[in-house]
Amino acid sequence: MKRIFALVLTLALALSLTACGSAKIEDTNGADNFALNTITDQNILKLDLPSAGSGIKISGLLSKTAEFSSKDFSGVVEILWTDMLAGDFVLDLMDYTVTGGNFRMVVINDDKIIADIAPGTTQILLPGVKGHVSLRIAGESAAYSFSMTEVEYNSFAHK
What we know:
The protein is 19% helix and 51% strand. By secondary structure, it is an alpha+beta fold. The radius of gyration is 18 Å and the shape is globular. 25% of the residues are buried.
């Protein structure tokens, strides 16, 4: 019985590790075109694609920074979210760049994409937002980076 359990557990682990590697989506529209080519708005809204290669690092001594970056990110990830009664959705970004692959950052409000955030953006300001709001990224073999203060990151819900 123990051997069967160990075999099943090993098989499950092997399958999960294989599935993680299968999230890679190739950049098929050229090095100078950062637009998504395979991932759709529906994939972003439903979060129905696995992701691989995204990461966050908290750094700094006094004014800590949450840094998000990857050299080869594929899939869709929800970075942060909040539920708003009514008001302005404000988020300050630092050093938002895309250097390879295909990448898109969006703001979702109640299952609709309400803003595309272009590289170089330093502040997202969306007045009069109400309901569930989230920041999501989608990438196809993307090389990207952006950051925000740790205090701001922690003012939102996140994984």
